[in-house]
């Protein structure tokens, strides 16, 4: 057993992996690889924890009528927001996000503390709206791609709204963006859970995956045709059994199946379907802001993207392509090739929206540190004054006997 290795799923020394695979078409899901912790990729998730907590609180206030909320109401929602500290502590640590004031909930009620977003935060939100407008073509392309990969090119509107944060869609994209592109999108059905977004027209420009684009770029650069294929690389110290290495080698040699191909005729347990499933996950993660998505969120799309019930085993079976982090008690699928250490290599233009907020949080932290520094200095000054006062009193007490003696 290697250090930091957790046995999520284990290989058996006596498991005839290749034999099982060649004898049964249902054996792909039985191929198992031990899971090894990747500290760098876990750190990438850890770095965003404070930002995500702040974003949840901000959105909670923004969703309120007039974007104001009684302080105590927000405190009651702290558990749902997974805020690890009291709201009062959070506001004190982030003095630049909100204005605190007193008002009445009802005309004759007592004054209570309220929160509203600050003018500084408003300016950041306005700047973010400009980022959305500047990157609207990218957002439309992402949304088309999500529909083009799905079965019958239709996805539940509720599910798309649920993943808007992962892909960088505006909060109100279904109302503000979708109606402006009738050539691409059509809303069908009505009611909660029964509204769907349907693709109107197929755009061949969008029907090319990141893998295929990369192969085209390499072909143009080298002057010879390069086959589309996955970048498969494990971090140092990772162990995979010989039989599994052989299976992966043979699997990698098989033709790439685009996530945009019609695979309705493929057997769910076939090698081709496995290739296609990996391709879909690779494309979904590539389209996401941070090149990672929580596994439970991906699980909501099993029907739309034809994932099997055991789909999460793909991330450990293909550990050279993906990493499944357990950070924070949530399984998160990550794209290995998208990171160098704990840093993203190619940043999505829509990340500018998060960067604006992160800069604001940093400004708030600096302001808070300055306030604490001034408070500490004030206490030290007071203590010095007290000590000087005590020192003067002692000098006076000493001098009195000398004066009496001299007289």
From TrEMBL:
Residues 37-364 form the PORR domain. Pfam families: PORR. InterPro entries: PORR_domain, PORR_fam. GO terms for molecular function: RNA binding. It comes from the Eukaryota. This is Plant organelle RNA recognition domain-containing protein. It comes from Artemisia annua.
């Amino acid at each position: 057993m290697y250090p930091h290795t957790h046995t999520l799923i284990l290989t058996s020394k006596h498991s005839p992996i290749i034999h099982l695979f060649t004898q049964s078409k249902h054996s792909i899901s039985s191929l198992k690889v031990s899971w090894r912790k990747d500290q760098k990729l876990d750190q990438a998730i850890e770095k965003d924890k404070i930002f995500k907590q702040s974003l949840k609180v901000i959105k909670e206030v923004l969703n309120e009528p007039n974007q104001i909320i009684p302080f105590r109401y927000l405190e009651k929602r702290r558990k749902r927001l997974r805020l690890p500290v009291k709201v009062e502590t959070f506001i004190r640590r982030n003095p630049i996000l909100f204005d605190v004031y007193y008002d009445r909930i009802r005309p004759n009620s007592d004054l209570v503390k309220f929160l509203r977003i600050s003018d500084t935060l408003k300016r950041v939100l306005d700047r973010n709206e400009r980022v959305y407008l500047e990157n609207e073509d990218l957002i439309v392309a992402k949304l088309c791609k999500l529909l083009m990969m799905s079965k019958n090119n239709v996805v539940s509107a509720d599910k798309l709204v649920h993943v808007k944060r992962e892909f960088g869609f505006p909060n109100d994209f279904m109302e503000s963006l979708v109606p402006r592109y009738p050539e691409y999108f059509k809303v069908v059905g009505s009611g909660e859970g029964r509204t769907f977004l349907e693709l109107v027209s197929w755009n061949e420009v969008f029907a090319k995956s990141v893998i295929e684009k990369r192969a085209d770029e390499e072909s143009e650069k080298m002057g010879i045709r390069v086959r589309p294929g996955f970048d498969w690389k494990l971090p140092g110290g990772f162990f995979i059994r010989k039989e599994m290495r052989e299976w992966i080698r043979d699997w990698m040699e098989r033709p790439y199946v685009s996530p945009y191909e019609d695979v309705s005729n493929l057997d769910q347990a076939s090698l081709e379907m496995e290739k296609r499933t990996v391709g879909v996950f690779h494309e979904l993660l590539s389209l996401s802001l941070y090149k990672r998505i929580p596994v439970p969120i991906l699980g909501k799309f099993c029907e739309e993207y034809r994932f099997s019930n055991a789909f999460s085993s793909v991330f450990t079976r293909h550990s050279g392509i993906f990493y499944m982090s357990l950070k924070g008690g949530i399984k998160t699928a990550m794209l290995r090739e998208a990171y160098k250490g704990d840093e993203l290599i190619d940043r999505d233009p829509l990340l500018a929206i998060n960067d604006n907020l992160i800069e604001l949080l940093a400004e708030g932290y600096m302001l808070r540190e300055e306030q604490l520094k001034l408070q500490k200095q004030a206490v030290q000054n007071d203590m010095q004054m007290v000590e000087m006062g005590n020192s003067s009193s002692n000098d006076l007490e000493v001098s009195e006997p000398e004066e009496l003696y001299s007289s």
